[in-house]
């Protein structure tokens, strides 16, 4: 009986959302028609006259009091937002809007999980519906414990800013938590752990969660922050995969039993995809690049619509290391689309391939006499596009941990120095 009522409510909600999305003009004219028909019974003319008379009797003191009251309320809201942001690292109003109001209004859920039986056409339409982030995520991000901490040990400086940590905390809470975590003690501990600002407190909370049961997100936190080497991180991610795969299979069977189970399945899908992606990145960093490429391809086939982790950019990095330029071109043909959000990886990889195609036969003397050919102009435009999109990449590559170092080294090595310096003076 409860399931039937839930199904009826879901159908009613979907009908309302569809009506609001596609028939809002019809609703608008219906309301106008009803107002016109009921204008006499509702005494609209008399009420408008009363309202007009009331507004005319208001004194300037009323407007001063109204302005002061609204300013006071706005100030209190601002103070509360500042306190909430300092404590949890995110905006309360934004979190409520995205988590609760947007689904009710039929907003696109970028984090929704999808199975492997979906068609390529659905995949393209899903990617086009994903809005571009205010700050584009870095899919080539390093391991916080095994790689970022190494920079701290060598230089004595923190590689991540306060703003970086807040962005990571928001991503962790979005991908690894859901509203029903309070029902499972280990997940409830991890929900608090992702909000902790102190690294040691997060690690202690992860160990506490593991004492209760095999918690996949706890293994993820330890692999990211406590492991001091990539080999240790890979070992912890393999334990996380075992726990996460079990949770994913259980929630997959229950996902249609209600919105609570659907949220759990979405979270478990995010966790599973994240673990497999990080395992592929561990394999690449440990020299098993071909194995990493296979893992990434399998993951993209298994979850073709889950594009928020940008696994294709990690795949581009691995294929470039293997110098499999034909495969790189095939990936670019699918993801270097004007309808999709751009990224430095896509722009600089496209520039690499186009510059590589003309570098063998390029001659500055011949180009000065006859001008640039179509292919050479395409290469120039691609490099312009890359540098204009992110001019910080060439400077950033001179640092120790540059994720696009391989790409830019290849671009600079195959392009004549005169043309390279000319293009990078933008």
3D structure, described in words:
This protein has 426 residues and is mostly helical. The chain folds into three domains: 1-50, no CATH class; 145-309, Serine Threonine Protein Phosphatase 5, Tetratricopeptide repeat, CATH 1.25.40; 324-426, no CATH class. It contains 22 helices and no strands. It has helices spanning 2-22, 24-37, 44-57, 60-88, 92-104, 120-129, 144-155, 162-176, 185-193, 199-212, 216-226, 230-254, 259-285, 289-302, 311-321, 325-335, 344-359, 364-370, 374-389, 393-396, 405-414, 417-423. Helix 10 runs antiparallel to helix 11. The protein is extended and about 85 Å long.
Q: What is the CATH architecture term of the largest domain?
A: Alpha Horseshoe
- Proportion of helical residues: over 70%
Distance between the termini: 67 Å
Q: Overall pLDDT, averaged?
A: 76
CATH topology of the largest domain, which one?
Serine Threonine Protein Phosphatase 5, Tetratricopeptide repeat
CATH first level of the largest domain: Mainly Alpha
| Largest sheet report | none
Give the overall form. Answer: extended
Poorly predicted parts: 106-134, 398-407, 422-426
Give me the secondary-structure category.
mainly alpha
> Number of DSSP helices?
22
User: What is the C-alpha radius of gyration, as a whole number of Å?
Assistant: 27 Å
Range of strand content: under 5%
Work out the number of β strands.
0
Number of domains: 3
Could you give the order of the helices and strands? HHHHHHHHHHHHHHHHHHHHHH
């Amino acid at each position: 009986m409860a399931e039937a009522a839930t199904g009826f409510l879901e159908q009613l909600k979907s009908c309302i959302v569809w009506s609001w999305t596609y028939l809002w003009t019809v609703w608008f004219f219906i309301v106008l028609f009803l107002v016109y028909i009921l204008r006499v019974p509702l005494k609209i003319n008399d009420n408008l006259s009363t309202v007009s008379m009331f507004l005319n009797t208001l004194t300037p003191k009323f407007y001063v009091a109204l302005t002061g009251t609204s300013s006071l309320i706005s100030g209190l809201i601002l103070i509360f937002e500042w306190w909430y942001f300092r404590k949890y690292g995110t905006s309360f109003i934004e979190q409520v809007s995205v988590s609760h109001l947007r689904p009710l209004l039929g907003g696109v859920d970028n984090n929704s999980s999808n199975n492997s039986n979906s068609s390529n056409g659905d995949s393209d339409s899903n990617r086009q519906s994903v809005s571009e982030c205010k700050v584009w995520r870095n899919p080539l991000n390093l391991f916080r414990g095994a790689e970022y901490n190494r920079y701290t040990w060598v230089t004595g400086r923190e590689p991540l800013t306060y703003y970086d940590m807040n962005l990571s905390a928001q991503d962790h809470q979005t991908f690894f938590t859901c509203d029903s975590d309070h029902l499972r003690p280990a997940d409830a501990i991890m929900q608090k752990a992702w909000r902790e600002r102190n690294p040691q407190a997060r690690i202690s909370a992860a160990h506490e969660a593991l004492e209760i049961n095999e918690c996949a997100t706890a293994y993820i936190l330890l692999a990211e922050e406590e492991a001091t080497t990539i080999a240790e991180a890979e070992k912890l991610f393999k334990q996380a995969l075992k726990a996460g795969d079990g949770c994913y299979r259980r929630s997959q069977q229950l996902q249609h039993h209600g919105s609570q189970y659907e949220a759990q399945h979405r979270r478990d899908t995010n966790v599973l995809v994240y673990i497999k992606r990080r395992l592929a990145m561990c394999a690449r960093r440990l020299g098993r690049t071909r194995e990493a490429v296979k893992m990434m391809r399998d993951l993209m086939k298994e979850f073709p619509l889950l594009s928020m982790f940008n696994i294709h950019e990690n795949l581009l990095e691995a294929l470039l290391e293997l110098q499999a330029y034909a495969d790189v071109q095939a990936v670019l043909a699918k993801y270097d689309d004007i309808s999709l959000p751009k990224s430095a990886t896509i722009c600089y990889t496209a520039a690499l391939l186009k510059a590589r195609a003309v570098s063998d036969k390029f001659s500055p003397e011949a180009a000065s006499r006859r001008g640039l050919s179509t292919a050479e102009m395409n290469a120039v435009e691609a490099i312009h596009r890359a540098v204009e999109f992110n001019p910080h990449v060439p400077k950033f590559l001179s640092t120790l941990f540059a994720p696009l170092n391989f790409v830019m080294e290849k671009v600079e090595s195959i392009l004549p120095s005169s043309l390279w310096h000319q293009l990078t003076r933008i």
